[in-house]
Each structure stands twice: as C-alpha cells, then as structure tokens.
Description:
Structural class: alpha/beta
Helix content: 40-55%
Domain HTH lacI-type: 4-58
Keywords: DNA-binding, Transcription, Transcription regulation
Strand content: 15-25%
Pfam families: LacI, Peripla_BP_3
Strand order of the largest sheet: 2-1-3-4-5-11
CATH architecture of the largest domain: 3-Layer(aba) Sandwich
Protein name: LacI family transcriptional regulator
Number of domains: 3
InterPro entries: HTH_LacI, LacI/GalR-like_sensor, Lambda_DNA-bd_dom_sf, Peripla_BP_I
Number of helices: 12
Amino acid sequence: MKRITIKDLSKFLSLSTSTISRALLHDKNVNDETRKRVLDAAHKMGYKPNLTALSLQSGQSKTIGFVVPEMITPFSAKVLKGIQNILYPLGYRIIITQSDEDPLIERKNLQLLEEFNVDAIIINLCHETYNNGIYQHIMGQGIPLIFFDRLPHQSLDVSKVIVNDSIKASLMVEHLIKTGRKRIVYIMGPTTIRNVTERMNGYKRILMKYNIFDENLIIQANGMTVQHGRDIIKQLLDKNIEFDSIFAFSDTLAMGVMNYLLEQKIRIPEDVAVASFSGTELSSMVYPQLTSVQQPLEKMGEKAAELALEKIKDSSAASRSVTMDAELVYRAST
Length: 334
C-alpha cells in the first residue's frame, strides 16, 4: 500500500504543502479550523509523518540515546522505565544500545547515536577514562551527555545522577559487623569503574574504624557476572582463606557466591553472610533473599531524563550533579 505523503494531504484538502506541514507541527500561525481539518484528514488517510523531515524543520530529532553496559539484569531496564516515564509523554523516542562492558563497543554506539542526530544521550559507562575523547567530541557537537551510576573522569563537566556509594557501602558493612561478622570479604569489580573504588573506600573505612581491616580480604573479580562470583568464592575456599561474610560489588556477583556456597553445603547466613550493592529484583529472587543496598533506579532514570531536557532546552545551562538516596534492605542472607 502506498505511503501517504504531505503532497497527498495537500491534494485532498486543496491546501499548500507548507500549510499542511505547519499544521502537523501545530504551528500557532495556522488557525484552529485548518489544523483540525489537516489532523482529521491525516488520521483518516493513515498518514505517518516522516520523522527525519520533521526533525530538520524543528531542529530536534525528538530522539534520546541510551547507552548501558548490559540489559540482561533488571538494573538498566528499571532506569529505562524512569526515562520513559518522563520522555514518552513528550513525544520522544529512545534508541537503546548495549556495550557488553566493552569500551570499544560503547564508542561505536556513541558514534551511531551521533549519526542519528539524537537530542541527548543518557549513559552508564563501562570505563572511567577510555572514551573521554569521544564524550568531549559529542558534547562539542551540541549533544548533551547525562551520566548515571558510573561516572567519567572528573575533568569532564557533565550532568550526572548518582548515589553516595562510599557512605552506603560503609553502612552495609557496619550492618555485617553488628551481626557479629569480623572477616568480611569485599568482592570488587574492575577498577576502571569509579564506583568499585568508592565502595571499597567505604568498606575499608568502616573496618578500620572497628580495627578489623585485612587488605587480603579485598578480592578483585575479572568481571561482574554470576560466574565471576562463583569463581571468586571457589578461589577463597580452595586457598582456605578464613571469612565469615561477603560484601559484593553487585547483585550478580553475590548470586554467584551464594550459588556456590549452597552447592558446597555452606549455610547462608549461619556460616557465611552475603550482602551486595544494586538492589534490583534479583535480590528477592534468590534463596535466601539477598541483603542489598537498593538504589532508586526508576527515580534515577526520571532525574536523568529531566537533566537531559534541561540541556536540550538550554545548551548553556550549568551541569548539575544529583545525589539520590539509596535504601539498605536487610533480608535473610544476613
């Protein structure tokens, strides 16, 4: 079936194509009666706007890029829901890309979004410094970048949405201490992500306060999947390292830990307590349910969208950093 165009509407209504175009864009110079005639005819004839053409006329694509390390866990999906809450009612579309924790793929995704001429990009990066050059290039092209959760190098002046990783990590580790734990392992992700170090600093500070810090209990995983969690806990057990609790950088690492412990008939939390940071639905889908720092992911997405709109409206608007509160949710694993 032939696609209906503005020329078809023009012929049907005996109006100029420029009038049709302005009416479809809700131009205030088109009277209400004419606008209604155009919109009614467009609906009746099944007209679908050429979004590329309309964006050239309006100067905006009404499209936002969303760049994340993964869409496997609920983390990014919850943030995306918050973004949609704000942007969908305003007529924006969202292009979703996934980097698989690979900065080279992230770079290609950013270049793709630049080619699509998106109005802004909301991003959770996979490496603190690797793509700083392209971040600066994209912002230099007038496309705002809004960061959430993981942050770029401090040299970049960007708007961002975060939680206080260090403080919340301290509070979670202190919870473990107050339940009688003294040999607390911190399973950290790659140090190319600033959150990893921030949470380690919180972990270290509280253990030093109680004079029970042992640097040998800081273990770095090679990645952040469930399998990486399994590998770390197997390594600890094989080396006969004494520990009574685990604080994991992410829910997925904690789940790998829990799976392996249970397979080895090690009781949770009686023998080993387990806690994590992220607080997605995964925390309540494992057995026993996982104690976690629960980030307000949907609200983080909403705030990131609002920051993007601020920059779209006024490219010279000052960058803002929004720190949101995270909740410590104590469950059966501790």
